[in-house]
Design goal:
- The protein has 456 residues and is an alpha/beta fold.
- It folds into three domains: 64 residues; 131 residues, no CATH class; 232 residues, Rossmann fold (3-Layer(aba) Sandwich), CATH 3.40.50.
- Helix content is 56%, strand content 7%.
- It has a six-stranded mixed beta sheet with strand order 3-2-1-4-5-6.
- Helix 13 links the parallel strand 1 and strand 2.
- The protein is elongated, with a radius of gyration of 33 Å.
Length: 456
């Protein structure tokens, strides 16, 4: 149980010493007689978050399940004559291949690998040097190959051909083949169980690495559970940005002296300037958002739109567009609902598909139908990686948008060394903007949005 808890912690599950003690007390109360109750007692005391249940269920059988798979003694199902024919076929087929002959004999007898055999296979494959569970599949394939299971599939076909020549009926061949395959799956499962248990034990022997702050994890490395966690944190992040921007606006109100506002506000004092008024130096920005919703950009766009629309009280007005192969106006959908619900609806209504990204065509649609939204007070933000599938990038439209707007920024997840590689046109768009912000994670995104608010 102690090593199981250590392995869970190494896999990223947060378990305190007190919770480990609760698990011990819980098992002491329920006992060890019912496996399901034992498992439930551990899970209810160790797992606090829903996304950790899968990790618990993955590791539990590696510590508390027998390593011996269910296998059948095939010889008991054969007549004495069939057994003799089978032994003759094996000897003729194998020749001097003692290792495969021994393996086939194990399968016929329904015997699993001994612990010595498994330890030898693990040592030969380098399993003691493994460090993490993601390596499990690779070591399983390697140990299956070293045990001869990969060759055995071909050997079984040759064995059936020889048995057919000796007089085995097709029905007898099928029955024997099914039993052999079942036992071979049992041996393969035994290797899988041994590999997983060995890796789990090795993980339990080392201290868990500190979990990285999800704010700093690149979007493309986030797991589904990480995404769910970040979605829950979005309101707190938006609240921090809102407070920061509100303080910025408050400080900016102490701008230059405004005589007209001073006279108007002091009319009640007979024109005596008791309350001085100043011109505000900070104005709420007007935004036009153009977001690439292709597969590689979806998480970034989801968080971007959620943050921006949770900050709408800090923005004068916002017009939002998404594109893959063509531009879609989603302004109304995002204004009619709560930001999180609205963004989920936009994502659901515009799923990724087999169409390819075409920013040039999307800019052409924007120029034809929406260019009037841009004026000297507008900040345009294009969220995308600048990859255009070798289509016309329409640099002329990008130039016109930058000329009409107060500012045009790019939020791009790719570093500058990747611009211009493959189908990337980012190196051509960058000079036509007022700045490219490299946004690889949620912290970069929040800082970039905060910069836009401050720049207004």
């Amino acid at each position: 149980m102690v090593e199981f808890i250590r392995a869970l912690r190494a896999a990223g599950v947060r378990i305190s010493i007190a919770e480990s003690q609760d698990a011990m007390f819980g098992v002491q109360k329920v006992g060890l007689f019912d496996p399901l109750i034992f498992k439930t007692a551990l899970r209810s005391t160790l797992v606090k978050e829903n996304h950790d249940r899968d990790t618990f269920d993955y590791f539990f059988p590696l510590f508390f399940t027998a390593n011996q798979p269910p296998m059948e003694d095939i010889n008991e199902q054969l007549t004495e004559e069939q057994q003799q024919m089978l032994q003759q076929a094996m000897e003729a087929l194998m020749g001097n291949m003692d290792a495969l002959k021994q393996l086939l004999q194990q399968m016929l007898n329904g015997d699993g690998f001994t612990q010595e055999q498994l330890d030898a296979l693990g040592e030969a494959s380098g399993l003691p040097n493994a460090s993490d569970m993601y390596q499990r599949a690779w070591f399983e394939r390697r140990m299956n190959s070293m045990a001869g299971l990969n060759q055995m599939a071909q050997m079984m076909d040759q064995l059936m051909e020889m048995l057919a020549e000796m007089g085995f009926s097709p029905q007898q061949q099928d029955a024997l083949r099914d039993m052999l395959r079942q036992n071979m799956r049992g041996l393969s499962d035994q290797i899988s169980q041994f590999t997983g248990a060995s890796l789990a034990q090795q993980m339990a022997q080392r201290e868990p690495e500190p979990r990285p702050d999800l704010m700093d994890v690149p979007f493309h490395r986030l797991s589904d559970s990480d995404i769910d966690t970040l979605r829950e944190q979005m309101r707190q992040l938006a609240a921090r940005l809102r407070s920061r921007n509100a303080l910025r606006q408050k400080r900016a109100r102490n701008g230059s002296f405004d005589p007209r506002r001073t006279l108007r506000s002091n009319m009640k004092y007979g024109g005596v300037p008791i309350q001085l008024q100043h011109r505000s130096q900070h104005k709420k920005p007007s935004l036009v958002l153009i977001c690439d919703l292709s597969t590689s950009m979806r998480y970034m766009v989801e968080f971007f739109l959620t943050l921006v629309y949770q900050l709408q009280d800090q923005v004068k007005r916002t017009h939002s567009f998404i594109f893959i192969s063509d531009l879609v106006d989603v302004t109304m959908e995002l204004e009619e609902h709560d930001s999180r619900v609205a963004v989920e609806k936009v994502m659901r209504d515009n799923p990724p598909g087999y169409y390819s990204t075409d920013l040039g065509n999307s800019l052409n649609t924007f120029s034809s139908d929406h260019m009037s939204l841009i004026d000297s007070r507008t900040t345009v933000i294009i969220v995308g990686d600048g990859r255009n599938n070798y289509n016309n990038p329409r640099l002329d439209i990008a130039t016109d948008m930058q000329r009409k707007a107060r500012r045009l920024f790019w939020f791009c997840p790719e570093p500058q060394v990747q611009w211009g590689t493959g189908d990337s046109d980012m190196h051509r768009y960058a000079p036509l903007s007022n700045g490219v912000m490299i946004v690889r994670n949620l912290r970069d995104l929040a800082n970039s949005i905060d910069h836009i608010m401050a720049d207004s």
